[in-house]
Design a protein that fits this description.
Number of helices: 5
CATH superfamily: Class II aldolase/adducin N-terminal domain
Distance between the termini: 28 Å
Radius of gyration: 16 Å
Order of helices and strands: EHEEEEEEHEHHEEH
CATH class: Alpha Beta
Number of strands: 10
Number of domains: 1
CATH architecture: 3-Layer(aba) Sandwich
């Protein structure tokens, strides 16, 4: 990943300053912690790399910007209600993830998908070609329209890679998105062990 985390690249307009309420938050916390434990969501100076979301009737709940996935709380999420250009309308006590615009695009493009897990799984990135995982054509900076456009070209796949950046795992449920990411991580780890022997 060429660019270090510097914060969100859009304006957040808070419709309400309160923690969002939705039954999916507890399961999102479970997957955030699991990804952190497995090294799929590594830490950086301001929190953890990656972001996770689930669709809601109003939009989607997403991990907040600069949150640590190792010890997520219910207040560490925002509900994105709409995206217009570089403006995101949300409910929350924290700003929504820097990749909220990309999540919005994927939900709009894939009405069958209810969960998006974006992680920075280095072991999968290193073994992507051997595992036959689709990869975007170009590397683009995080949180940009350019990265979103690259993702749009591959989001018909339920699991793909943003070149030199991270993975996107999609699912009809959070369990489906999470299991897909965990299984691919294990396959990549096994492949790495086999190569070293």
């Amino acid at each position: 990943m060429s660019e270090g985390y510097v914060g969100v690249k859009f304006e957040t307009v808070f419709v309400e300053r309160r923690a969002p309420k939705h039954k999916c938050i507890k399961e999102l916390i479970f997957w955030c912690r699991k990804f952190s434990e497995m090294g799929i969501a590594p830490k950086h100076a301001a929190g953890s790399y990656g972001n996770m979301s689930c669709r809601t009737p109003k939009g989607f709940i997403i991990t907040g910007a600069s949150t640590n996935h190792e010890n997520m709380k219910e207040t560490d999420f925002a509900e994105v209600l709409s995206v217009s250009g570089k403006q995101v309308r949300a409910i929350g006590l924290c700003a929504p993830s820097s990749e909220s615009v990309m999540h919005h695009m994927i939900y709009s493009t894939r009405p069958d998908i209810n969960a998006i897990f974006h992680s920075h799984d280095d072991i999968v990135l290193k073994n992507a070609k051997k595992l036959g995982i689709p990869v975007t054509e170009k590397e683009e900076p995080y949180g940009t329209p350019e990265l979103m456009e690259q993702a749009k070209k591959l989001c018909m796949h339920d699991y793909f890679i943003l070149k030199n950046h991270g993975i996107i795992s999609l699912g009809k449920t959070m369990k489906e998105a999470g299991k897909r990411a965990v299984e691919m991580h294990k396959k990549a780890a096994e492949l790495s062990r086999t190569v070293k022997q």
